[in-house]
């Protein structure tokens, strides 16, 4: 699904700002059929949870309603009119006046509806969006709603970040011609000094397609006719990590010799390949430095914010990070576009986090519940997971910054049932995009020998916490255990290995001369120990620290106002580890 853009043939109205807002408990039976009777207003984009000083809103389980009036620009007569929601977490319903126009499940990918027949140019309509924050064993990510002895509903979940909900990304009204570009797929290759751009344009309506490529200065460097084909750019400038270069592919729909739709897409020419135990970008070994991140800030929750976007990337540049993982869900498209423009490499992840019912019991010594089964992860979960993979790849396939798909974080891959669950999903991801390596992120409880699915993937991505969850405070033992495990993976698979998570909770300002967990000194020593081991492992191709910044989680006895493994605090102040990482990453040669 193409991101809405303003072009010579399309217009765009961003519907961000304050909307009327109400919980389902206050909104009445059919809240979309009238003006919402509510004193509350909520900003879009933002998660709603932390806005109001009201735990009934923060802890709400179920639907909430957003509503505003929208005027269709009067010049849109004869155009198709569409409403697009960049994300509704976790399920959304859109009403134009009294009519339901689209429903969508999956909290981090966009959806839209053609509403032309329900609205009129120059006139207003009532736009109501319902958002449901509930997770079940059949959603991605999974969760469960429980009801306690007092009849209170609670949302529980297995992932370690707060279940922020609402409209955390933009909502758009846009116009587009009936005969238009619906989708573009671009695959790039390099042939000597030339760049080869394979493209496919899907249109609605019967029309011809013309494609032009412009360089960064706007000069035309290639053209082609037809809905699919190949364009060569002689003397191409490659998109490189740290040195982004973007061309613009302009797809035009032509009817009777006239251009009726035009859609520009930023593209970068680069190749990605796994060869033996190397990860190659443009044929050169690439070593990932950086973080697992979160979309998480105070007050706005997961609400997209351009100021934090720019600041986070500046901090990543300062510290010498060349990459990050969109742990644990697809991020706002603005983030990927920014990564494209700034040469930051992305591992792009679905929201399949927490497919592991044994982890909490495993960590806290409680009962171990099986992950796969009719009431846990089942066929419907798998179907939702397949849909999450489809929507991620459909949305992000053209970003040069995206070099690998991660189809899940820390599933229960140590049990036999994980294989029939994951095999078709890995096949699906490869079919949808044969050009990028695929991975899943392996959990500590499924080490080499126990894990049942790593052979299905191209890169071994491991999350390991030796010195934190195990060997707590004992970095000497941690070093030996980490090295032994990594050597086991290397010997068994011969594939590239990335440490996609390693980290220690650290309260900024906590200090000790001893190796005391939770102190800034311990976080530095913990990272140093990991790095010593990584540098001894030949197959190592990357290190992404958990986490870029402190972030909010559900309450629990191992979380102090959230997860404190950030190298930066939640408000982006550096802990001592930030300086230590900067000193390593700005000098690292591998
Ligand atoms: C993990 C998870 C991540 C958690 C982290 C932790 O393995 O992938 O979501 O936040 O550990 O800090 O426990």
Which regions are unreliable across 5 or more consecutive residues at pLDDT < 50? none
Count of distinct structural domains: 3
Number of helices: 10
Q: What is the CATH topology classification name of the largest domain?
A: TIM Barrel
Cα-atom Rg, whole angstroms? 24 Å
Helix content: 10-25%
Bound molecules: (2S,3S,4S,5R)-3,4,5-trihydroxy-6-oxo-oxane-2-carboxylic acid
| Strands side by side in the biggest sheet | 25-26-27-28-29-30-31-32
Mean pLDDT: 96
| CATH class category name of the largest domain | Alpha Beta
What is the strand tally?
32
In terms of DSSP E residues, the strand content is 25-35%
Structural class: alpha+beta
CATH-level-2 architecture of the largest domain: Alpha-Beta Barrel
Compute the separation of the termini in Å: 38 Å
Domain Glycoside hydrolase family 2 immunoglobulin-like beta-sandwich: 180-270
Protein name: Beta-glucuronidase
Family: Belongs to the glycosyl hydrolase 2 family.
GO molecular function: beta-glucuronidase activity
Task: Please tell me about this protein's structure.
It is a single chain. By secondary structure, this protein is α+β, with helices and mostly antiparallel strands. The protein has three domains: about 10-175, Galactose-binding domain-like (Jelly Rolls); about 180-270, Immunoglobulin-like (Sandwich), CATH 2.60.40.10; about 290-585, TIM Barrel, CATH 3.20.20.80. About 20% of the residues lie in helices and about 30% in strands. It is built from ten helices and 32 strands. The strands form eight sheets. Strands 25-26-27-28-29-30-31-32 form an eight-stranded parallel beta barrel, surrounded by four helices. A six-stranded antiparallel beta sheet has the order 3-2-5-10-7-8. The chain has a four-stranded antiparallel beta sheet with strand order 1-14-6-9, with no helix packed on it. A hairpin with a 5-residue loop joins strand 11 (about 145) and strand 12 (about 155). Helix 3 (about 305-320) runs parallel beside helix 4. The radius of gyration is 24 Å and the shape is globular. It starts with 10 loop residues before the first strand and ends in a 5-residue tail after the last helix. The model has no long low-confidence stretch (mean pLDDT about 95). It binds (2S,3S,4S,5R)-3,4,5-trihydroxy-6-oxo-oxane-2-carboxylic acid.
């Amino acid at each position: 699904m193409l991101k809405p853009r303003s072009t010579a043939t399309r217009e765009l109205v961003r519907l961000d700002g304050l909307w009327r807002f109400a919980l389902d408990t206050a909104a009445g039976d059919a809240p979309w059929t009238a003006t919402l009777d509510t004193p509350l207003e909520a900003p879009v984009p933002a998660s709603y949870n932390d806005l109001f000083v009201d735990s009934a809103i923060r802890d709400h389980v179920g639907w909430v309603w957003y509503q505003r009036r929208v005027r269709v620009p009067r010049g849109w007569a004869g155009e198709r009119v569409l409403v697009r929601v960049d994300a509704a977490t976790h399920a959304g319903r859109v009403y134009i006046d009294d009519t339901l126009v689209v429903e969508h499940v999956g909290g981090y990918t966009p959806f839209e509806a053609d509403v032309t027949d329900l609205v009129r140019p120059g006139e207003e309509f009532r736009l109501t969006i319902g958002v449901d924050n509930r997770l079940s064993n059949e959603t991605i990510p999974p969760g469960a709603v429980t009801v306690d002895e007092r009849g209170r509903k609670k949302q529980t979940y297995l992932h370690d970040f707060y279940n922020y909900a609402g409209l955390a990304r933009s909502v758009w009204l846009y116009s587009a011609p009936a005969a238009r570009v619906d989708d573009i797929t671009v695959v790039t290759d390099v042939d000597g000094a030339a760049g080869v751009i394979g493209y496919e344009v899907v249109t609605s309506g019967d029309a011809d397609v013309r494609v032009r490529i412009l360089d960064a200065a706007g000069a035309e460097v290639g053209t082609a006719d037809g809905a699919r084909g190949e364009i060569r750019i002689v003397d191409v400038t490659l998109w490189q990590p740290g040195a982004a270069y973007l061309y613009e592919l302009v797809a035009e729909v032509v009817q009777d010799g006239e251009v009726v739709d035009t859609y520009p897409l930023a593209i970068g020419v680069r190749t990605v390949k796994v060869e033996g135990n190397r990860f190659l970008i443009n044929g050169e070994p690439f070593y990932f430095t950086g973080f697992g991140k979160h979309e998480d800030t105070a007050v706005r929750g997961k609400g997209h914010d351009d100021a934090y976007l720019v600041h986070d990337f500046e901090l990543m540049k300062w510290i010498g990070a060349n990459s990050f993982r969109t742990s644990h869900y697809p991020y706002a498209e603005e983030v990927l576009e920014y990564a494209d423009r700034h040469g930051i490499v992305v591992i792009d992840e679905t929201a399949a986090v927490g497919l592991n019912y044994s982890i909490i019991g495993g960590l806290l010594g409680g009962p171990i519940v099986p992950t796969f089964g009719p009431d846990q992860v089942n066929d419907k979960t798998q179907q939702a997971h397949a849909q999450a993979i489809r929507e991620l790849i459909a949305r992000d396939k053209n970003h040069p910054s995206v070099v690998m798909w991660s189809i899940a974080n820390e599933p229960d891959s140590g049990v036999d049932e994980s294989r029939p669950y994951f095999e078709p999903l890995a096949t699906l991801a490869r079919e949808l995009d044969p050009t990028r390596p695929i991975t899943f992120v392996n959990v500590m409880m499924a080490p080499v020998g126990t894990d049942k699915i790593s052979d299905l993937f191209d890169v071994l991505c491991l999350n390991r916490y030796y010195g934190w969850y195990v060997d707590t405070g004992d970095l000497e033992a941690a070093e030996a255990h980490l090295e032994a495990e990594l050597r086991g993976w290397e010997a068994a698979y011969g594939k590239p290995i990335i440490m996609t998570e390693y980290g220690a909770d650290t309260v900024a300002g906590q200090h000790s001369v001893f190796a005391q967990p939770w102190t800034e000194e311990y976080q530095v020593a913990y990272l140093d120990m990991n790095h010593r081991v990584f540098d001894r492992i030949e197959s190592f191709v990357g290190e992404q620290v958990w986490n870029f910044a402190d972030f909010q989680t559900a309450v629990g006895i191992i979380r102090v106002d959230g997860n404190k493994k950030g190298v930066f605090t939640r408000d982006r102040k550096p802990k001592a580890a930030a300086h230590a990482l900067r000193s390593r990453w700005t000098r690292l040669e591998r």
